[in-house]
Design goal:
The structure is a homodimer. Chain A has nine helices and no strands. By secondary structure, chain A is mainly alpha-helical. Chain A is elongated.
Chain lengths: ~200, ~200
DNA sequence: ATAAATGGTGAACAATGTTAATATTTTTTA
DNA sequence: TAAAAAATATTAACATTGTTCACCATTTAT
């Protein structure tokens, strides 16, 4: 059971977390600063430090929430696709769509420096394994269906993880390709290459 | 012809650029700040602004130099490899080696925000096309040799570019895989997948 | 020799993260 | 219920970093 005190404390933490998430989605990571977030949460900037070790901790607490949201989105965008190659492709496209719609969240997942390395190691691993989780169902389905073997599935997953991270990095951070439509075409091609081990 | 004035000016710019490059290679991008670089160059921090628009401009001027260095390194590391698949693989490994040896340069190429977007567009394109340039010779060789067609070469290049960027991003920024030896093994696998369209 | 231009510098300001002392509110207790 | 104690929130202050500007020194031109 939770005491009143714990409940109240977790509510206030929630206000800060919500303010951070809104800022991240709206204005991006660079707009997230102690004063802006605290004002949005309805507190003075110093109050933040009564509930979080530092700004970095607060920011990385958002990762879990965004993961769930992103996973829900990709699954939702692929309900009508046939399990296997078709659904995997749909999910990858949704995944890419999510991170281009919210470049601030991409920054948070892949770019932002994790200052306190030891403490953030679990987060780093979580992020690393996040793509795997989204891919997992369909790769299993493809293996069970005899469309590829375990080895090929592993390689496909590795290639998807790396190439999509790179694709998003180059588009979000380097604006290459410069036009969104060109980017979508390249993304489409890239997914097809990654899935070419499937029978 | 260059006037005395131009020569002197370009020398001083060179001192700042050299100081920035040393800092980038040694302590990384986060150690690059106006006061540290200026002191290393032997001038006051304010002097920097007599020669460069801002710190960002100075930092991005280094890109060209590092590109040349990186290209020289990858070519040097692959002189004994047979042109085609073998040399391409050697070059990709050298490329990866360069950016893991100097994570600060990786940050500069792929991560660091380009503040003034319009002005930095050429740099962004240059970086985007840099990998292509390193890959180009061997892909051409493979096409001429009948080991793959033009379409397959394009896809291979795209996949290499994206997946290696992603691989480096995840290792340098998220420490995944956590051990360098594991990372090398993953990198090796990843290159093989990308090159699997070659006969 | 003096005036003008050039180049270099420190002072100063703004933004941001963070800490510590202070003020305020809530809770406890006599 | 009123005073004391505990908790919570806020303001003041400092450090770091990027940047601008007025000023000083030095060189160059007249």
């Amino acid at each position: 059971m939770v005491s009143n005190k714990e409940l109240q404390e977790s509510r206030i933490r929630g206000y800060f977390i919500e303010a951070t998430k809104e800022t991240l989605k709206g204005e991006g990571l660079r707009a997230v600063n102690v004063r802006a977030v605290s004002e949005r949460a309805g507190y003075s900037f110093a109050t933040l430090y009564n509930y979080f070790k530092d700004l970095n901790e607060l920011v990385f607490i958002c990762v879990q929430d965004f993961m769930n949201e992103c996973e829900g989105f990709t699954v939702g965008q692929s309900v009508n696709a046939r399990p296997g190659k078709e659904r995997l492709k749909a999910r990858m496209k949704a995944y890419i769509g999510y991170f281009t719609q919210y470049p601030g969240i991409f920054e948070l997942f892949y770019i932002e420096r994790m200052n306190d390395l030891g403490a953030r190691q679990p987060t780093a691993r979580m992020i690393y394994e996040f793509t795997d989780r989204i891919i997992h169902d369909d790769l299993t389905h493809l293996i069970d269906n005899g469309d590829m073997n375990r080895e090929q599935a592993e390689l496909t997953g590795l290639n998807l993880k790396n190439s999509i991270a790179g694709l998003l990095l180059l588009f979000n951070n380097r604006l290459q390709p410069a036009e969104y439509l060109d980017f979508l075409a390249v993304a489409d091609k890239q997914i097809d290459i990654s899935l070419s081990l499937i029978k």
